[in-house]
Amino acid sequence: MTPPSKNRIAWAGAWSRGHNNARQEELLPRLDRVDRFYVDMHPCWPIRGVRRRIWLPLLMRWLGARYPLVYCTDWRQIRRIHNAVVCDHDDPLFGAEEIRELNRPNVAAVVVTSESVSRRLADRGLRNPAVVIPQGVSTPSVTPEQVKAAREAWTRSAREVVAGIHQPHFEFSDELPADSLQQMYAVDRLLEAMECARRKEPRLVLWLVGEPSRKVREYAERSPWVRLTGYQRRPALMEYVAAFDIGLYPRALDLMGRASIKVLEYMACGVPVVGFDVEEMVPVKEAKAGIAARDPAAFAAGLIALARDKPARARMGAHGIKASAAYHWEVLAQRYAELLDRCLERSGER
């Protein structure tokens, strides 16, 4: 293999045939100067384990010595990189080991998704520069015909008001590890709020766009107002999102300032949002694009209010479309490319 140009940047990471980090799916193809090395996560677990635990670390070590700058999307990879690193840190946990790795002298910049995360990392001891490039959204390329087809496939009456959410999988809380971030995928609180709202507004139905667990399937079999569409890959996913009347963000667990792509996708599709009042709902609140509820009762009340007020849904949806323009990936990728260019230039001065 010929040596890379001094003006090239390397990225390598695990890549699934199913669900991947939406941020990297959108950013990587738009960063022209970045050479991408996708390590396919094979469906066979032994092969998958070898590729993740042996092949990927060796590849990172090789690229980290060969390229002047590595674009890194996992802080655990930093120790294997000899040259300069820009680390995209979109899912921080703020642990001591994490901060220690981010403070290594070869880290040129740590990219985070919000000012709140930047401040928290600084409070925990981050000394290397943090740069805020928020989560983004693609301009939805969804036609009215596609939205109509999705509605016709999953609704049983034109009177139904669709409240929907998409995520990789859905479980009840007792199916997930306790005291784990995996609890964000639990549907218990959402189903309780929907049951409460449906007692006053029975036109409400729930679309769960993702893979359901056995218990969620059993619940849906008993509850015909719950529609399980299965996991949908991009770009087809946006056809479902655009077909929602109300987008849901039922995660009461505050993710310490992380931004939510899901919320931005609702906004970009003109779908008003009902969510709990956590930091991830800040773009919705600032744009007046939905309702931030303080408790389950207020969440249910928000669902009822929007189900009964179509003009309000349209108004909030329009606010969301307007505000989401600042978060389009085309805009953010340009900012990212400029940051990488600056760091690459500085790496040549080391």
Keywords for this structure?
about 350 residues; 4-stranded parallel sheet; 6-stranded parallel sheet
Order of adjacent strands in the largest pleated sheet: 9-8-7-10-11-12
Distance between termini? 26 Å
Radius of gyration from the alpha-carbon trace, in angstroms:
21 Å
Sequence of secondary-structure elements: EHEHEEHEHEHEHEHEHEHEHEHHH
**Biggest beta sheet summary:** 6 strands, parallel
Structural class: alpha/beta
Beta-strand content bin: 15-25%
Total number of helices: 13
Low-confidence stretches at least 5 residues in length (pLDDT < 50)? Answer: none
Mean pLDDT, to the nearest integer, reads 92
* Strand elements, count: 12
Q: What does the overall shape look like?
A: globular
Helix content percent band: 40-55%
Describe this structure in words.
This protein is α/β, with parallel strands linked by helices and 350 residues long. It is built from 13 helices and 12 strands. The strands form 3 sheets. It has a 6-stranded parallel beta sheet with strand order 9-8-7-10-11-12, with helices on both faces. It has a 4-stranded parallel beta sheet with strand order 3-4-5-6. The chain has a two-stranded parallel sheet with strand order 1-2. Helix 5 crosses helix 8 (236-243) and helix 6 packs across helix 11 (296-307). It is globular, with a radius of gyration of 21 Å. The two termini are 26 Å apart.
